[in-house]
């Protein structure tokens, strides 16, 4: 046990004292926060304003269509497709067929996505308003006022969790499930690869031969896996602290007008939703925070730590086994690691189904299989335990993952013991399986 602790200490200290680790740990959140801030400022300051000349034979547009921050509409005389650029217009909008659906746009350059979306919205909005006024004698302003008075429909969702009745929020559960599943996915790939590279480097540099003379191969493998896992956990904790601090600082330092304009720009993007929808979302913020406070954070965080830890241990042992069989050829490493990375990639694909249909058969079965459960089960848990995820499924998933970790560690240790001292020969999966299941 003391030897394993010494290996863990060595693996941890060597990596956290490395300049590359220190720089990447500090610079990554700084770059991320800086990128978000820069994009926010640019999205507000760098909006091209297009001046559009309108030739409207129907008479429905003039005096009715409203300007936006990206578009302004004018109805000049004597402007056509041959001289609109010379008269200072970016584009020409007209109705050659005379019908409401026959609007066409001629421009000297292709409009941006925001400008094009706003143009379509404003034309449709103007036509709808004119139709309501001419056919049904409905004033649009009165209609909007009535809509605001009535408000939008709200669904007060509750669900049974044990003996308690709790308020539900599918959007919140979706976000937590997606975020936690994706974080575990990134962890498995990044730090699993780090374990494999560490084992391969020690083997190619002949360091492993010296260490093996003092400790057992199993002790070396477990110590390396836990040590690198501790490095990863340390890095993630620092990242979370820095990202929260930097994001809060950026939000506090940026002018309120800039943040508001950035939000409006996002809402005006295709699929960004209307301002009325945004207003409805803002009105429901109190309900959202109330639902947030009712989430079972103790269970969610506890399950996340469990699946984070055992998911990493499960896959890291496999990556260590592959790393022990690789020599200096990087292509060999890529071909051998593919069967390990494929289940991780498949898991993130299944996760996308699980967060939209957490009780489906695909999500249920995948959350029980150790190769997929760290990612898929974490996508289901925020939707409720035992409502969506019965206790027996959660316990069975955890038991199978722990059992899978013990089995893969046993198999990987036998492969590691042979592979770490093998040089000059390309290992295959067939040979590795022989090493794993042969008797001592």
TrEMBL record:
InterPro entries listed in its UniProt record: ABC2_TM
Phylogenetic placement of the source organism: Bacteria, Pseudomonadati, Bacteroidota, Chitinophagia, Chitinophagales
Pfam families per the UniProt record, alphabetical: ABC2_membrane_3 (PF12698)
One term of GO molecular function: ABC-type transporter activity
Name of the protein described by the UniProt record: ABC transporter permease
Keywords: Membrane, Transmembrane, Transmembrane helix
Location within or outside the cell: Membrane
Bilayer topology term: Multi-pass membrane protein
UniProt keyword Acetylation present: no
One Gene Ontology cellular component: membrane
ABC-2 type transporter transmembrane domain location: 19-413
Organism: Segetibacter aerophilus
């Amino acid at each position: 046990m003391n030897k394993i602790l010494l290996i863990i200490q060595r693996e941890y200290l060597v990596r956290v004292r490395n300049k590359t680790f220190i720089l990447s740990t500090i610079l990554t959140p700084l770059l991320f926060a800086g990128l978000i801030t820069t994009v926010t400022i640019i999205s507000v300051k760098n909006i091209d304003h297009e001046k559009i000349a309108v030739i409207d034979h129907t008479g429905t547009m003039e005096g009715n269509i409203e300007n936006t921050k990206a578009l302004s509409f004018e109805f000049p005389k004597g402007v056509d497709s041959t001289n609109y650029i010379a008269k200072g217009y970016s584009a020409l909008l007209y109705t050659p067929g005379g019908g409401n659906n026959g609007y066409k746009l001629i421009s000297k350059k292709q409009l941006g996505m925001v400008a094009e979306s706003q143009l379509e919205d404003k034309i449709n909005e103007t036509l709808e308003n004119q139709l309501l006024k001419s056919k049904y004698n409905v004033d649009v302003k009165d209609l909007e006022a009535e809509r605001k008075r009535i408000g939008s429909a709200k669904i007060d969702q509750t669900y049974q969790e044990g003996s308690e009745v709790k308020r539900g929020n599918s959007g919140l559960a979706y976000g937590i499930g997606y975020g936690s599943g994706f974080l575990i996915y990134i962890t498995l790939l990044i730090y699993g690869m780090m374990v494999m590279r560490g084992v391969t480097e020690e083997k190619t540099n002949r360091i492993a031969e010296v260490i093996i003379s003092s400790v057992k191969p199993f002790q070396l493998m477990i110590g390396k896996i836990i040590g690198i896992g501790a490095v990863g956990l340390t890095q993630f904790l620092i990242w979370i602290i820095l990202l929260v601090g930097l994001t809060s600082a950026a939000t506090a330092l940026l002018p309120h007008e800039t943040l508001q304009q950035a939000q409006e720009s996002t809402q005006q993007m295709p699929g960004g939703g209307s301002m009325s929808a945004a207003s409805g979302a803002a009105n429901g913020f109190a309900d959202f925070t109330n639902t947030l406070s009712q989430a079972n954070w103790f269970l969610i965080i506890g399950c996340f730590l469990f699946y984070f830890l055992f998911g990493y241990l499960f896959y890291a042992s496999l990556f260590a086994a592959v790393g022990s069989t690789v020599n200096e050829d990087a292509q060999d490493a890529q071909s051998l690691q593919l069967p390990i990375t494929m289940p991780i990639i498949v898991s993130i694909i299944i996760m996308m189904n699980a967060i939209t249909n957490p009780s489906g058969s695909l999500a249920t079965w995948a959350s029980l299989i150790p190769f997929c459960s760290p990612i898929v089960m974490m996508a289901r848990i925020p939707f409720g335990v035992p409502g969506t995820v019965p206790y027996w499924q959660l316990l069975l998933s955890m038991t199978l993952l722990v059992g899978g970790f013990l089995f893969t560690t046993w198999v990987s240790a036998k492969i590691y013991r042979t592979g770490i001292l093998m040089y000059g020969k390309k290992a295959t999966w067939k040979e590795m399986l022989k090493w794993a299941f042969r008797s001592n």
